[in-house]
């Protein structure tokens, strides 16, 4: 694998950390971003320590993906420090649930802003350069609940479904330029986001997963590693569902 530069947003824990690890193992120079003012999770700290002990340098930059100008400045800094960005994984995302009859405009806007506007904010900065250089891999992290909808998540499901249309459109724009764009839709994965779900609810969720368990972050990281590989150039505009068979 070429020593390409890969950016993973929202890398401080959960799926992002596992994605960074998989990309490092694939020989990428990885830049993980963390939201300024938030703590790294224990897994993310451990991940950084492990990699550094192995002599693998991981660059961590602060970034708020809702800030268009901040994304522009971030990309400029990374490109000056390390070189052009060849791989972008838009992973940062949040939930802020409520049934529609209780959902406040702030809740709606916050989730749209973090989960969907961030796709534009980040892709807009790197896409042109990727096309000019004739190589690029973009993976946008969606969700099972974007595919099927979910009670109490009209905001979240709308953002995750919106990712499909966005991804397919830029896949068309990049297709002749060596730039692919795909989405990955995780099912329920054992991460801090899912650990917030009440135990009773989680038990009933696991009962509904045909493979009989939550996914592991590595299950998603492997999909990202595949879609960002140099020789995955014929895979574009698609969605990879990684959900233990929960939705087919
Ligand atoms: P997580 O909460 O552990 O990680 C999300 C990351 O996004 C964190 O590092 C957080 O700091 C970052 N973030 C939040 N707001 C940000 C902002 N404004 N700017 C920059 N970074 C910001 O969650 P996770 O479970 O690892 O989820 C990662 C992605 O996978 C999300 O897009 C989520 O919607 C999606 N997903 C997760 C699951 C799951 O089961 N965990 C299932 C389906 C989809």
Automatic annotation (TrEMBL):
**Where does the record place the Ketoreductase domain?**
4-192
**EC numbers on record:** 1.3.1.58
Cell cycle listed as a keyword: no
Task: Give the protein family.
Answer: Belongs to the short-chain dehydrogenases/reductases (SDR) family.
Q: Which GO terms describe its cellular component?
A: cytoplasm
Mind telling me which InterPro entries this protein's record contains? Acetoacetyl-CoA_reductase, KR_dom, NAD(P)-bd_dom_sf, Sc_DH/Rdtase_CS, SDR, SDR_fam
The signal peptide annotation in the UniProt record is none
Q: In which pathway does it act?
A: Aromatic compound metabolism; p-cumate degradation; acetaldehyde and pyruvate from p-cumate: step 2/7
| Gene Ontology terms for molecular function | 2,3-dihydroxy-2,3-dihydro-p-cumate dehydrogenase activity; acetoacetyl-CoA reductase activity
Enumerate the NCBIfam families for this protein.
AcAcCoA_reduct, PRK12824.1, PRK12826.1-2
GO BP term, pick one = poly-hydroxybutyrate biosynthetic process
Reaction it catalyzes: (2R,3S)-2,3-dihydroxy-2,3-dihydro-p-cumate + NAD(+) = 2,3-dihydroxy-p-cumate + NADH + H(+)
| This protein's name | 2,3-dihydroxy-2,3-dihydro-p-cumate dehydrogenase
Q: Which keywords has UniProt assigned to this entry? A: Oxidoreductase
